[in-house]
Amino acid sequence: MIPTITPYQNPVRSETQSDQQKLQQAAQGFEAIFVRNMIGAMRAASLGEDLLANNGSDQFRTLMDDRIADQMVQQNGLGIADMLVSQWKDKI
What we know:
Strand content: under 5%
Largest sheet: none
Shape: elongated
Helix content: 55-70%
Distance between the termini: 31 Å
Radius of gyration: 21 Å
Number of helices: 3
Protein backbone atom coordinates (compact mmCIF):
# COMPACT_ATOMS: atom_id res chain seq x y z
CA MET A 1 0.00 0.00 0.00
CA ILE A 2 1.36 3.40 -1.03
CA PRO A 3 0.80 6.20 1.46
CA THR A 4 -0.95 9.22 0.03
CA ILE A 5 0.39 12.70 0.63
CA THR A 6 -2.08 15.52 0.78
CA PRO A 7 -1.11 19.00 -0.40
CA TYR A 8 -0.68 20.05 3.24
CA GLN A 9 1.88 17.36 4.02
CA ASN A 10 5.44 17.70 2.91
CA PRO A 11 7.72 15.21 4.67
CA VAL A 12 10.91 16.76 3.29
CA ARG A 13 10.00 20.21 4.52
CA SER A 14 9.13 19.03 8.04
CA GLU A 15 12.52 17.33 8.34
CA THR A 16 14.24 20.50 7.14
CA GLN A 17 12.41 22.59 9.71
CA SER A 18 13.43 20.11 12.38
CA ASP A 19 17.05 20.37 11.25
CA GLN A 20 16.79 24.17 11.26
CA GLN A 21 15.49 24.07 14.83
CA LYS A 22 18.30 21.74 15.86
CA LEU A 23 20.82 24.08 14.25
CA GLN A 24 19.31 27.06 16.11
CA GLN A 25 19.47 25.21 19.43
CA ALA A 26 23.07 24.11 18.83
CA ALA A 27 24.11 27.64 17.88
CA GLN A 28 22.45 29.07 20.99
CA GLY A 29 24.12 26.41 23.12
CA PHE A 30 27.51 27.33 21.67
CA GLU A 31 26.90 31.01 22.31
CA ALA A 32 25.82 30.29 25.90
CA ILE A 33 29.05 28.37 26.54
CA PHE A 34 31.05 31.22 25.02
CA VAL A 35 29.28 33.82 27.18
CA ARG A 36 29.76 31.68 30.32
CA ASN A 37 33.50 31.47 29.64
CA MET A 38 33.65 35.20 28.98
CA ILE A 39 31.87 36.02 32.25
CA GLY A 40 34.15 33.58 34.09
CA ALA A 41 37.22 35.27 32.64
CA MET A 42 35.91 38.67 33.70
CA ARG A 43 35.31 37.38 37.23
CA ALA A 44 38.82 35.91 37.38
CA ALA A 45 40.30 39.29 36.44
CA SER A 46 39.12 40.98 39.64
CA LEU A 47 41.31 43.79 40.86
CA GLY A 48 40.85 43.29 44.58
CA GLU A 49 39.74 40.95 47.30
CA ASP A 50 36.11 40.01 47.69
CA LEU A 51 35.05 40.89 51.22
CA LEU A 52 32.48 38.11 51.45
CA ALA A 53 34.30 35.45 49.45
CA ASN A 54 33.81 31.81 50.45
CA ASN A 55 33.06 28.51 48.74
CA GLY A 56 29.29 28.92 49.04
CA SER A 57 29.21 32.36 47.47
CA ASP A 58 31.53 31.17 44.67
CA GLN A 59 29.17 28.31 43.86
CA PHE A 60 26.12 30.56 43.78
CA ARG A 61 27.99 33.15 41.75
CA THR A 62 28.77 30.48 39.16
CA LEU A 63 25.09 29.46 39.04
CA MET A 64 24.11 33.12 38.66
CA ASP A 65 26.63 33.61 35.87
CA ASP A 66 25.25 30.55 34.05
CA ARG A 67 21.71 31.92 34.36
CA ILE A 68 22.81 35.34 33.09
CA ALA A 69 24.51 33.72 30.09
CA ASP A 70 21.38 31.71 29.27
CA GLN A 71 19.19 34.82 29.54
CA MET A 72 21.54 36.82 27.31
CA VAL A 73 21.44 34.15 24.60
CA GLN A 74 17.63 33.90 24.74
CA GLN A 75 17.44 37.67 24.16
CA ASN A 76 19.72 37.56 21.07
CA GLY A 77 22.89 37.88 23.16
CA LEU A 78 25.96 38.84 21.21
CA GLY A 79 24.66 37.66 17.85
CA ILE A 80 27.04 34.72 17.60
CA ALA A 81 24.19 32.20 17.30
CA ASP A 82 22.64 34.20 14.45
CA MET A 83 25.96 34.29 12.59
CA LEU A 84 26.43 30.54 13.03
CA VAL A 85 22.90 29.80 11.79
CA SER A 86 23.34 32.02 8.73
CA GLN A 87 26.67 30.36 7.94
CA TRP A 88 25.47 26.76 8.33
CA LYS A 89 21.79 26.84 7.29
CA ASP A 90 22.53 26.02 3.65
CA LYS A 91 24.78 23.09 4.59
CA ILE A 92 22.20 20.99 6.40
